[in-house]
């Protein structure tokens, strides 16, 4: 059941990445996908004998990487907004020359 929720969360993020045209919404979708993957990693590391500390360390590292990815993507989106005046990907593609 809980694995299905992780899959559903991942699919919601994937929908946001593939369907939306706004860069901010795409970044949010990416963050949701990363959160679902990290949650699944933690769930898989929790066995019958208890939590595996190595898996939790890897998950903590994954959270740090996810934060860095979101920060860089947000900075790129902001720079593109300053240059083109829009967060819409279609507008930016039209102005690309």
User: Any idea what the shape is?
Assistant: elongated
The separation of the N and C termini measures 49 Å
**Main beta-sheet annotation:** 2 strands, antiparallel
Helical proportion, percent range: over 70%
Tally of contiguous helical segments: 4
Pattern of helices and strands: HHEEHH
Number of strands: 2
Question: Class in CATH?
Answer: Mainly Alpha
Radius of gyration: 17 Å
Summarize the structure in words:
By secondary structure, the chain is mainly alpha-helical. The chain has a single domain (2-95), classed as Helix Hairpins (Orthogonal Bundle). The chain has 4 helices and 2 strands, in the order H-H-E-E-H-H. The chain has a two-stranded antiparallel sheet with strand order 1-2. Strand 1 (46-47) and strand 2 (50-51) form a beta hairpin. The radius of gyration is 17 Å and the shape is elongated. The chain starts with a helix and ends with a helix. The mean pLDDT is 91.
Write out key terms for the chains shown:
4 helices; mainly alpha; elongated; two-stranded antiparallel ribbon; 2 strands; 82% helix; 97 residues; 4% strand; Helix Hairpins
Chain-wise SSE layout:
Blueprint: H1 2-19, H2 23-45, E1 46-47, E2 50-51, H3 53-84, H4 89-95
Antiparallel strand pairs: 1-2
Helix pairs in contact: 1-2, 2-3
Please sum up the structure shown.
With 97 residues, the protein is mostly helical. It is 82% helix and 4% strand.
């Amino acid at each position: 059941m809980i694995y299905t929720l992780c899959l559903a969360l991942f699919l919601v993020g994937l929908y946001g990445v593939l369907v939306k045209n706004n860069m901010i919404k795409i970044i949010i979708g990416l963050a949701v996908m990363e959160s679902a993957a990290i949650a699944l990693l933690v769930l898989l590391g929790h066995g019958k004998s208890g939590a595996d500390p190595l898996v939790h360390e890897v998950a903590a590292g994954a959270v740090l990487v996810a934060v860095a990815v979101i920060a860089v993507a947000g900075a790129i989106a902001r720079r593109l907004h300053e240059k083109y005046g829009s967060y819409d990907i279609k507008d930016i593609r039209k102005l690309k020359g």
